[in-house]
Design brief:
By secondary structure, this protein is of the alpha/beta class. The chain is built from 12 helices and 9 strands. It is about 40% helix and about 20% strand.
C-alpha cells in the first residue's frame, strides 16, 4: 500500500526511555484537553485495538490530558458489528474516539457492510506493526527466494495460514502473489479465527507457511519452532535479524496500522480538540516508550494527511481483495 516511513532511531531511543519517566512525567502534566473521553473499541478485549485503547487510557490519564476515561468494547465481524452503533447512537459525541485500523477497512469490504469508515471523521493514524512470512522449523524452505520458487511452481500446494479471510494476512499474501505474477485466485490461504490455532498449524507442519504480525510470531521464531523468511516493512526492525521481503526480491510492503476516528456530526471545533488531544498523547514520552516496548512502529499521521492516506489505502485494499475474489 502507500509508503509508511519507519524510524529505527526513534524506536530504539523510545524503548530506552521508559525507566527515566516516573517523577518527571508526573511533574510535567499538562492541563486536561478534555474532561471526559470515551474510547470505543470495535473488538473484544485482548486484541490489538483493545491494547491500543488501554495504552491510550493509561497515557491520557497519567499525562493529565483527560479527566474521566471510559473504554467500551463491542466485538464482532472485524469491527463491522460495532460501526453502526458508532455512527448512529454515538454520532455528534465530541468526546468519543473509536480505535480501529486496516482490518476494519477490509472487513467492511468483505462483509459488504452498509456502514463503513467513510462515514466517520478520521482523526489520526497512531502506529503500526509489520507482518512476517514464516515456515515451520522443519521446512526445507530456508529463505524467501526458496519460498518464491516453490510458490511460483505450484501456488496451490503452498498452503499459507493466517487470520480471517480478507484480513491483513490474506491481503499480504495476495500482494506477494501479484508481485510475483502468480494469479491471486490460485493461492491456498487457510484462514483461522484466532492466532492460537494458526500457530499450531504452522508449528505442526499442517501448512507450508504462515503470515501474521511480527509480535505474534516472534516468540516462536526465537524458540526455534518457526523460521522467519521476510518482513513486510520497508526497513528491518531494530535488533531483529530478519530481512524484509523487499530486500529479498519481493516488492510487497504492508503495515497493520491502527488509528482513531470520531463519530459523524461533530463540530470543527470538537474535531480540532480531538486532534490536539491525540497529537499530545502520541508526542508524550510515555506513549513513545510504551509503544516501542510493544514493538509498535511510530507511524503517526495527523488528520489532513491521514484522510488522504485513507482514501488511497481503501482503493488499494479493495483491489487486492478483488484479486482473491473477496470483493465485488
Amino acid at each position: 500500500m502507500s509508503k509508511l516511513p519507519t524510524s529505527r532511531r526513534a524506536l530504539l531511543s523510545a524503548a530506552l526511555a521508559i525507566p527515566a519517566l516516573g517523577a518527571s512525567l508526573r511533574a510535567a502534566r499538562a492541563a486536561p484537553i478534555l474532561e471526559t473521553v470515551r474510547l470505543f473499541v470495535p473488538a473484544a478485549p485482548g486484541g490489538g485495538w483493545d491494547a491500543t485503547a488501554r495504552l491510550m487510557e493509561k497515557v491520557l490519564r497519567e499525562a493529565g490530558l483527560a479527566g474521566s476515561i471510559q473504554v467500551e468494547n463491542v466485538p464482532g465481524a472485524g469491527g463491522t458489528v460495532a460501526l453502526p452503533r458508532f455512527t448512529g447512537a454515538l454520532r455528534g459525541r465530541g468526546d468519543t474516539l473509536m480505535v480501529s485500523g486496516l482490518t476494519q477497512l477490509s472487513s467492511a469490504i468483505v462483509n459488504k457492510s452498509p456502514v463503513t469508515l467513510a462515514e466517520t471523521v478520521p482523526i489520526a493514524r497512531l502506529s503500526g506493526e509489520t507482518h512476517v512470512l514464516v515456515v515451520p522449523a522443519d521446512s526445507p524452505i530456508k529463505n524467501t527466494a526458496e519460498f518464491v520458487a516453490a510458490f511460483r511452481e505450484n501456488p496451490r500446494a503452498m498452503s499459507v495460514a493466517g487470520g480471517s479471510a480478507g484480513g491483513t494476512d490474506h491481503i499480504l499474501l495476495a500482494m506477494i502473489a501479484s508481485k510475483l505474477g502468480v494469479p491471486p485466485s490460485s493461492i491456498s490461504y487457510v484462514a483461522f479465527n484466532s492466532g492460537g490455532p494458526a500457530v499450531t498449524a504452522i508449528i505442526g507442519s499442517q501448512v507450508k507457511a504462515g503470515i501474521s504480525n511480527w509480535s505474534e510470531f516472534a516468540p516462536h521464531v526465537a524458540s526455534g519452532r518457526m523460521r522467519a523468511l521476510g518482513l513486510s516493512s520497508e526497513e528491518r526492525l531494530p535488533g531483529v535479524e530478519v530481512p524484509t521481503l523487499r530486500e529479498s526480491g519481493v516488492d510487497a510492503v504492508l503495515y497493520n496500522w491502527r488509528a482513531v476516528f470520531a463519530p459523524p456530526r461533530i463540530s470543527e471545533q470538537e474535531t480540532e480538540k480531538l486532534e490536539k488531544l491525540v497529537e499530545a498523547m502520541v508526542r508524550s514520552q510515555l506513549w513513545e516508550a510504551e509503544a516501542a516496548q510493544r514493538g509498535w512502529l511510530p507511524l503517526y499521521m495527523p488528520r489532513k494527511e491521514f484522510t488522504a492516506f485513507l482514501k488511497a489505502e481503501s482503493t488499494a485494499i479493495e483491489a487486492s481483495l478483488k484479486q482473491v475474489g473477496l470483493a465485488g
